[in-house]
């Protein structure tokens, strides 16, 4: 008896494909390598234009050896400003601890600080109020483990340099950071005459580490020996992405083109790619190591990190004892900031703000 064969229906492959699509999109994030943002040519040109304006203005502004800027008015008289701290907030969400930072800034006069916020424009963010109102600068998309975070930090530095010649220190912090001392305590610490380097410039507080178990993998994240000849392995450094830079070093960062050409390259090994933790320590180590403390002012707890993220403090952990512990360091000075705190910590932090955090 002959075997009957029937022509296959074209609907079967179509239905199979349609049924497979949901499964593919569900499994794709765990199968495909994560796609990282890259620096586009238009974004790079925008930044270069901003950097050049900041560099030109800084070169035309005279400063004395203690980095206290002075400018000449149209009448020819010279006016001297008190040095300011520029706070650079780098965020991709709401500033959860804005009320705590408001108290921090309310302790002093507005002419001692400036605020600049880089907020990822692709994410809806509640407009900041109070001293934070209208402080968001022209921003671009950012992504962890990509050169976009470095671009954002450089954009903040350039904007602050261009905006006010009396900005003498530039402190980069995130939406998860909190202050550990009063503003006056921080200001006195930064501008104490004993905090000068050998060349009478203010020191920069940035972590610079030459040893790490993953240093070789991080160095070759873009491909083996791709960083040469600009950066040899012996010159490569790692450190915290949050820092407090002097004006001199902020200028060095936005003036750099040579090292940036390497660090903006896309990574092949994404698991070892953290440009925001590599670029600044490497650049300043090569440019002026003696002018850097090699320590950061921001305390981070890495004892139980998850997927490259440090320990996140939650509401039950907040106490006066925690604040005292976070201030302690192995150096001669105290930590000034700490991360990483979850939004539910705000209320307990506010409760101890005056009696503990801002008491000193």
Give a structural overview.
By secondary structure, this protein is of the alpha/beta class. About 8% of the residues have low confidence.
List the keywords.
single chain; four-stranded mixed sheet; globular; glycosyltransferase; 12 helices; BC10-like; alpha/beta; 360 residues
Secondary structure elements and pairings:
Elements: H1 11-31, H2 41-60, E1 62-63, E2 69-72, E3 78-80, E4 84-91, H3 98-106, E5 113-119, H4 148-163, E6 167-174, E7 178-179, H5 183-190, H6 215-219, E8 244-246, H7 247-255, H8 260-263, H9 275-288, E9 298-300, H10 320-327, E10 337-339, H11 346-351, H12 353-357
Parallel strand pairs: 4-5, 4-6, 9-10
Antiparallel strand pairs: 1-2, 2-3, 6-8, 7-10
Helix pairs in contact: 2-4, 4-7
Organism: Cinchona calisaya
Keywords: Glycoprotein, Glycosyltransferase, Membrane, Transferase, Transmembrane, Transmembrane helix
GO cellular component, one term: membrane
Distance between the termini: 98 Å
Give helix % range.
Answer: 25-40%
Q: Helix- and strand-based class?
A: alpha/beta
Number of strands: 10
Poorly predicted ranges (pLDDT <50, ≥5 residues)? 24-33, 62-79
H/E element string? HHEEEEHEHEEHHEHHHEHEHH
Shape: globular
Query: Please, how many domains?
Result: 1
Main sheet summary: 4 strands, mixed
Major sheet: arrangement of strands? 5-4-6-8
């Amino acid at each position: 008896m002959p075997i009957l064969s029937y022509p296959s229906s074209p609907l079967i492959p179509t239905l199979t494909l349609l049924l497979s699509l949901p499964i593919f999109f569900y499994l794709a994030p765990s199968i495909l390598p994560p796609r990282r943002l890259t620096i586009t040519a238009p974004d790079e040109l925008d930044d270069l234009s901003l950097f050049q304006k900041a560099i030109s203005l800084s070169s035309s502004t005279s400063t004395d050896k203690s980095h206290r800027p002075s400018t000449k008015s149209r009448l020819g008289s010279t006016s001297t400003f008190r040095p300011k701290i520029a706070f650079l907030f780098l965020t991709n969400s709401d500033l959860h601890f804005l009320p705590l930072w408001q108290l921090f800034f309310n302790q002093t006069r507005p002419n001692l600080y400036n605020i600049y916020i880089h907020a990822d424009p692709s994410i809806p963010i509640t407009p900041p109020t109070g001293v934070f109102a209208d402080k968001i600068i022209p921003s671009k998309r950012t992504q962890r483990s990509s050169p976009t975070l470095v671009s954002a930090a450089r954009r903040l530095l350039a904007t602050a340099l261009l905006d006010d010649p009396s900005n003498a220190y530039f402190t980069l912090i995130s939406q998860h950071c909190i202050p550990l001392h009063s503003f006056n305590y921080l200001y006195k610490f930064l501008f104490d005459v004993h905090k000068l380097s050998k060349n009478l410039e203010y020191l920069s507080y940035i972590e610079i580490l030459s040893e790490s178990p993953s240093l070789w993998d991080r160095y070759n994240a873009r491909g083996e020996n791709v960083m040469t000849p600009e950066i040899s392995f012996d010159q490569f450094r790692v450190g915290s992405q949050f820092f407090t830079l002097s004006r001199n070093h902020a200028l060095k960062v936005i003036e750099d083109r040579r090292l940036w050409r390497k660090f903006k390259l896309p990574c092949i090994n994404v698991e070892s790619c953290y440009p925001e933790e590599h670029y600044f320590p490497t650049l300043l180590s090569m440019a002026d190591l003696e002018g850097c403390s090699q320590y950061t002012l921001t305390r981070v707890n890495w004892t139980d990190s998850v997927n490259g993220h440090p320990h996140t403090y939650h509401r039950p952990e907040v106490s006066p004892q925690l604040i005292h512990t976070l201030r302690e360091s192995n150096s001669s000075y105290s930590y000034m900031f700490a991360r990483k705190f979850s939004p539910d910590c705000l209320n307990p932090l506010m409760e101890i703000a005056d009696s503990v955090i801002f008491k000193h």
